[in-house]
Structure formats: structure tokens, C-alpha cells
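Recall the central idea of this unit: under ordinary conditions, the amino acid sequence of a chain determines the structure it adopts. In this exercise we apply that idea directly, starting from the sequence alone.
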Amino acid sequence: MLKNALLIAITLSGCAVRSVPHNTVTVEGIHSRAGVQASRAVPLDQPLSADDAVVVSLQSNAQLKADLAALGIAEADLLEAGLYRNPKLDMLVPIGAKPFELLISMPLEIFWQRSRRIIASQADLDRLAQSLIQNGLNVARDARLAHSDLLQAEGRAKLAQESLTLRLRIQQLTEARLRSGDISELETIPARADAAAAKELAAQTEAEVITAKEKLRFILGHSITRSNLQVKSDPVESSAPPTLETLLEKAMASRPELRAMELTIATAAKKAKWERSRLTLLSAMLSSKEVGANGVLTGPGISVELPIFHRNNGMIARAEAEVAAASLQYLALKQRVAFEVAEARSQWVQASDALRKLREDLKPTLDRAAALMQEQYTRGEVSYLNVLEQTRPLADLRIREVDGEGAVRRAAAQLERSVGSR
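Accordingly, the structure predicted from this sequence is:
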């Protein structure tokens, strides 16, 4: 009976557990939660939308690729967990009066520990896959933020240049009035200072465009050259977000980090069971020995490690402590997720309200004032300089509007990441 068991063990020693590769499943999960199609081709020579930027970043981001490569390591650990230990062969060569002796031993504890090792390694692989989905959502969020920053920087640069042109024209007309003796030099100082500030702002916004473009290229994995990198605007989400309770419920069900932490607890619990099964080491032996004129005699035997000084108490205690630590981390993570969702929603509401008030309250007032000034100029009641000065607040408002749109886009991207899906 023992010989048959040993032969079966030797036969199974090359067998290993096979698992479905997680890389493809994880990548599909990332794209699905990010709300984009993984197989969609993005023309890199055309302006990118926010979704285009997400697709390119998920396909080309170097750090995400490095993170996904860790799945190969976890799959290798799972493969190792399913391997049977090789039998051990000891042979004593007969020299002089020493007889020939051959000893083959096969560990038996693998037969009840292997399944637990596989379950623990599989849970660890599933945990890693879920955590990498969260990494992918972080990359998608960063792509949307970088895309929004570049849109905002380009909009600010364009409007800052228009504002500079306007203020330089005001300065020229003011200087002409000075030369004609209509005003004193003191009255020209505000126009000069305003033009200088507009010139500084124009230079600053041009530098912001360069920085934002490099940031987006980095997120995209440098898959687009500087000269070809262009972005296009998407409609700004103006509808009210769902209630906080709805978002929290969705986040608790969708957030990959929470699922990964749940799997961490399950993995720690399975490892604890595995450690409890490792109380002793038991091996089956088959001994062959030359005995005088009787030739070589073969007989079975066993080798047992006696659990006298310890019963794997240290590793069992460590595994149980890992379960407790993972449980506490899970509670802390749930609190952090709730805070992130509440904060992101509050930022979105605040940014949306500010943009709406700017467009519905302040902008119509300034538009009306500029129109009335234009009518007075047409009737010859005011000078063209008055028209330009009345247009100046409207130019400043347009820059604030671009900043408001950027704030809404950033808040929406943060909220999507906080919830765990589009």
C-alpha cells in the first residue's frame, strides 16, 4: 500500500495547477470601469478627447504596464503552490565493509497542505488583480485631469493674449490722450500697469501650456510627440450629481480597493488555516540495503517530525494577526472611501454652482453693459476708449469661465475615481 502511494506521488510530482491568466481580465475590467473600449483605435495625429486620452494612457502608460506585470509573478506563485515536492533520494556507496544502502523518501504532508496553499495563492492573485484595477482607474483619472489641465491652459493662454491686445490698445489710446493734453501723466499709470500685468499673465499662461502638455505626454506614455499632441474640448457636465447616499452605495459595491481588501482578509484567513495544518512533517520512505548473502532487501518506513518544542505556534499567531490587521485596514479603507466620495461630490457641486452663477448671473450683466456702451459709442456719446474699458471686465470673465470649466472637469474625474466607475 505504501509502495503504491509512493508511486502515485512520484507520478503527480510534475503536475501543477493551471489558472486562467488574469492580465486580460484585469485590463478589460479597467476599461469597463473607466467607461472606454479597450480595443478602440485612437488616431494620434488628431486632437484627443478626454476619452481618447484615457484609452491611450491605458494602452501606453509605462507605470501601468509595470504594475500589470506583477500579475505574472502572482501567477507564478500560484503555479508554485500547486507543485508537488520532489522525492528525495539518498544513496550510500559500498566502500570496504560498508554495505550498499539506498533510501527514497517522499513528503506526505503535501497531500493535505497542497489544496490550502493553492486556495491561499489563488486568493492572493485575485486580490492583486482587483488592486491593479484600482491602479488603472487612477491612471484614467490622471489622464482626464491632465487633459483638462491642457485644455484649461490653452484656453487661458488664448484669452490672455486677447486680453493683452485689448489692454495694449487701451494704453495706446491713453498715451494719445496724454500727448494731446487731455489727461495728465498720472492718469496714464493705471493703463500702463494694467498692460504690464496682462503681458506677464500672457507669458505665464504660455509656460502653463508647455507644462500641461508635458504632463499629458507623460500620462500617455510619451506615445505622442510634442508637435502632434492636440486636445479638443468635451461638453462640461452641468447636471446635478446623484445623491451622496447613492454614490456611497455604488462606491462600496464598485470600488476595486474595497474588493481587494476583502480578498486580503480572505487570503489571510486561508493562510491561517494552512499554517495550522503545518503542525508536523511526515514522509514516507522506501529503504534498500545490501544484507550479506541475502542480497538487497527493500522495505518501507516513515519519518515524522515530533512536535515537542513547538507546534508552529509562531507562524499561526502571525497569520491570525494578519487577519486582524487586514480587518482593521478594511474598516479604515471604507471610511476613507466614504470621505473621498463626499469630498469629490462636494467639489463637483461647488464648481458647478460657481460656473452656473458666473454664466447665468455675472456674464449676462457684463454682456449687457458692453452692448449699452457700444450703442452709446455708435450715437457718438462716448469715445472708443470707453468701449474698450467696458470690454475689459468681460475679457477677465472669460478667463474665469475657462477656469470654472476646468474645475468642473477635475471634480468629475475625481468623483468617478472615488466611486470606482463612470
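Residues 280 and 306 are 7 Å apart (CA to CA).
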